[in-house]
Design a protein that fits this description.
The protein is of the alpha/beta class and 247 residues long. It has one domain: Ribonuclease Z/Hydroxyacylglutathione hydrolase-like (Metallo-beta-lactamase, Chain A), CATH 3.60.15. A 6-stranded mixed sheet has the order 1-2-3-4-5-6, with helices on one face. It has a 6-stranded mixed sheet with strand order 7-8-9-10-13-14. The protein has a two-stranded antiparallel sheet with strand order 11-12. A hairpin with a 4-residue loop joins strand 1 and strand 2. The termini are far apart.
Length: 247
Amino acid sequence: MSQPFVDVLTLGVWQANCYIVGDSERGTAFVVDPGQDGEGPVTKALAARGVTCEAILLTHAHLDHLWSAPELARSLDVGVRMHEEDRWLWDEPGAGIGAAPGNLEAQFGLVWDPPHERLETFRDEHTMTIAGMQVDVRHTPGHTPGSSVFITDDLGDAPVMISGDLIFAGSVGRTDFLRGSWEEEARSIHRVVLPQPDDMRIISGHGPETTVGAERRSNPFVHQIMADLGSPEPAIGKPVTKQRRGL
């Protein structure tokens, strides 16, 4: 009998959520968004569960979500999977937050030396099998061009969306960084999040867990998106003046 689990580690100064998703019975797992100083905590969490990591997945390639991916890819001997549209951030992650090229060490103390041979990019939406689970990959641009969410029905009674910085409890991801787009983010939420069942769990890149139903009822950004994006699709308005989150 399968014993699926999701563990969350909140990492670094940006308090980004890293998820370890796996099955204790199978002894396998995957890691999502290993952020700042995450190598030690992730390695210990995998050992505590007695599971082997099969891959690292990135919802997007901002620094607070991929900081520890290179070290973990090497130490765990696994690949890193992300959307092709965020490849530019894998090559130069500081670009997403306005850091000067090659200046991450001076600004953040990070020597960025990614193992390019371990990077596996995808473009099309698809379903992958990983750690014995079926995981649907949906492209959700807006926060970054390559932002994606991972959806699975294999973690208990309710389906789960690992949303990265697309949507949070009561908020949505920032779009004021380089190549961000509020219009694209609104369309992504309308296309991917809102059609989901109310009981779908959303475990996001920052903050607490929520559900699709809770965000449909109380998230002011979602209310605006539902008002703006009827059928046929009207022009998208500016976001309401509420705090948005995520690096």
